[in-house]
Design a protein that fits this description.
By secondary structure, the protein is of the alpha/beta class. It has a single domain (about 5-215), classed as HUPs (Rossmann fold). The chain contains 6 helices and 12 strands. The chain has helices spanning about 40-55, 70-80, 95-110, 130-140, 190-195, 245-255; strands spanning about 5-10, 10-15, 35, 55-65, 85, 115-120, 140-145, 150, 155-160, 165-170, 175-180, 200-205. The strands form 3 sheets. It has a 7-stranded parallel sheet, sandwiched between helices. Strands 8-9-10 form a 3-stranded antiparallel sheet. Strands 2-3 form a two-stranded antiparallel sheet. A hairpin with a 2-residue loop joins strand 8 (about 150) and strand 9. Helix 2 (about 70-80) crosses helix 5 (about 190-195). It is globular. Bound molecules: flavin-adenine dinucleotide (FAD). Flavin-adenine dinucleotide binds near residues 64 and 96. Flavin-adenine dinucleotide binds next to helix 1, strand 4, helix 3, strand 6 and helix 4. Keywords: Electron transport, Transport. InterPro entries: ETF_a/b_N, ETF_b, ETF_beta_N, Rossmann-like_a/b/a_fold. Belongs to the ETF beta-subunit/FixA family.
Length: about 260
C-alpha cells in the first residue's frame, strides 16, 4: 500500500519586506509579498527522500493561508511533491496556532495520511509548537526536531541533536515529525519540475468542507490575540565614549548603569 506523506508548508510574509499590522492588529498579509517558509523546504526535501526510498509513496503538500499561499504550494510541487491541498476561508483570518492546528488536523484527516512532516518552525511566527499540537489533535505519536529521518517497516526513525547529546527516536506510523535545517539541503526546483508543477492537482477546501464552524477559528476561536502594538522607536545616536585615558572605566560605568554587568 502506498505511503501517504503530508507535508505542512506555510506561506509567510517576506522578512525583507516592510511588514505592518492591519487595523485589527493582525499582520497585514495583503500589504507584503510572501513565499514558502524556507524552513519548510527542508520538510519537503525529507518527504522526497523518504518517497524515493519507498516502493510506493505519495506526497501531498498542505497549506492554510490566503489566496497567494498557492505560490508556496507551487514551489513545493515544483520540487517534486505529487499534489496539494489549499485551505482558504475568510473566517480563518486571525487564527492563532490553536485554531490553525485545528484546520490543519481536519484537512490532514480528510486527505488521509501515514506520515505528517512539518518544518521546525515557521520563519514568521517561529513558535515551533505547531507539530506537537497537531500530533495531539490527531492522536498520534510525535517525533520532533529531527536532523535525520527515515521510514522502515511502518516505523519512522530519526535523530534529534541536542547541545549535549544526540537521541535516536522512533514511532510507529501514523505519526507527526518535524525536521530541522540540519536535515539536508533542500533541492532547487528544476525547469522540468516547474513545468510539471503547473499540471499537478491543487485541491481547495474551505471551513465547510472540513466541518469546522466559523467561531472555532479566526480571532473568536483563538486562545491568543494581539491587544496593542506600537512602532519601534527610531534609533538614537547612542552614547559615544571617547578614550582619553579613562575610556575603559567610563565603558564599565556605562554598562553598570544599564545593568549589563
Ligand atoms: C491568513 C492567516 C492569518 C493569520 N492570522 C493570525 C493572527 O492574527 N494571529 C496569530 O497568532 N496567528 C495568525 N495566523 C497563524 C500563524 O501565522 C501561524 O500559522 C500559527 O500560529 C502557527 O504558528 P507558527 O507559524 O509560529 O508555527 P510553528 O509552530 O513555528 O510552525 C511549525 C511548522 O508548522 C507548519 N505550519 C505552521 N503554520 C502553517 C500553516 N498556516 N499552513 C501549513 N503549515 C503550517 C509548518 O510546517 C511549520 O514549519 C494566521 C495565519 C494565516 C495563514
Amino acid at each position: 500500500m502506498s505511503l501517504r506523506i503530508v507535508v505542512c508548508v506555510k506561506y509567510v510574509p517576506d522578512a525583507t519586506g516592510d511588514r505592518h499590522f492591519a487595523d485589527d492588529l493582525t499582520v497585514d498579509r495583503d500589504d507584503v509579498d510572501g513565499l514558502l517558509s524556507e524552513l519548510d523546504e527542508y520538510a519537503v526535501e525529507q518527504a522526497l527522500q523518504i518517497a524515493e526510498e519507498a516502493d510506493d509513496a505519495e506526497i501531498t503538500v498542505l497549506t492554510v493561508g490566503p489566496e497567494d499561499a498557492k505560490d508556496a504550494l507551487r514551489k513545493a510541487l515544483s520540487m517534486g511533491a505529487d499534489k496539494a491541498v489549499h485551505v482558504e476561508d475568510d473566517d480563518i483570518h486571525g487564527s492563532d496556532v490553536m485554531a490553525t492546528s485545528l484546520v490543519l488536523a481536519k484537512a490532514i484527516e480528510k486527505t488521509g495520511y501515514d506520515l505528517v512532516i512539518c518544518g521546525m518552525a515557521s520563519t514568521d511566527g517561529t513558535m515551533g509548537v505547531l507539530p506537537a499540537i497537531l500530533a495531539e489533535r490527531l492522536g498520534v505519536p510525535q517525533v520532533t526536531l529531527l536532523s535525520e529521518v527515515s521510514v522502515e517497516d511502518g516505523t519512522v526513525k530519526g535523530r534529534r541533536d541536542g547541545d549535549t547529546a544526540s537521541e535516536r527516536l522512533e514511532a510507529s506510523l501514523p505519526a507527526v515529525v518535524s525536521v530541522t535545517d540540519q536535515s539536508g539541503e533542500a533541492r532547487y526546483p528544476s525547469f522540468k519540475g516547474i513545468m510539471a508543477a503547473k499540471k499537478k492537482p491543487v485541491e481547495s477546501l474551505d471551513l465547510e468542507d472540513l466541518e469546522i464552524e466559523a467561531d472555532e477559528v479566526g480571532l473568536e476561536g483563538s486562545w491568543t490575540r494581539v491587544d496593542s502594538a506600537a512602532e519601534r522607536p527610531a534609533r538614537t545616536a547612542g552614547t559615544i565614549v571617547k578614550d582619553e585615558g579613562e575610556g575603559g572605566k567610563q565603558l564599565a560605568e556605562f554598562l553598570a548603569s544599564q545593568k549589563f554587568i
